[in-house]
Amino acid sequence: MHHHSLALILLGSLLAGTTAAVPTRDQLVAADYQKGRTAFQQRCSACHTLAEGGSNLVGPNLWSLIGRKAGAAPGFASSEALEAAGFQWDVARVWEFMAGPDQLIPGNRMMIPEPVPEADRTALVSFLLQETGAADWPRPAAAMVEERTDRARPLEERYPSFYQHLMTNTTRYRMETPSGERRFDVYFNGDGSVSASEPSMRGFWNTVERKGMEFFCYALDGIAGKPSQLVECFPIAAMAIPRFAEQLWTSTPTEGVILHGGIVAGRP
Q1: Which DSSP letter does residue 256 get?
Q2: Whole-prediction pTM value?
């Protein structure tokens, strides 16, 4: 994207009427790339990919987001609210959306545990522009260097906050199926096993590496009704900031099933 194109997008952002302090181009260029990447990994990567040709996950791939009509992501079924929003994505809209999706577009399906703090938002928007083809400045050298984690070390040493959060608290699920709704609690254990509030349920967990990113994967068996089994994986970085809420994420593990998950403090 050429300099004048981004300038027009930023100008449009400033005229869009948002009261938030939308960053200028100079602020976006000067933003900390690593900070933006970390914010994306922790807050966004569980639902979105960035690269051209990347897959749609729970949310759409974000390549070429800037300038695209809201709700028009290729191959992704957006909510009616997003499709009816009637605007094209620009810096201000992205900035405002990160502050509260439902405030900008009431009734949209995207849920975030908390607004992205303004202290992180400029770096995150800058990183998003650079990784989705919208920036008119070169990516920093840091973008070419992937941080590597020594997977020979135990999980509790590689990701201590994540490990303690998951292994000492309760993961709460609400599963919507064609036959009705079910609720159950799950407990991830340090020995690799998974127990649950329903005595018939058992499972196990492990970590795998895919395309340089480490995922936490688990399998559950013995769920009452259908589906009786559940297998899911999510990026560990997406859970790196410990949060408590009855609902922190939503996924579709199999056709016709919607799974809502959250973490509540402590265990029985």
Answers
A1: T
A2: 0.58
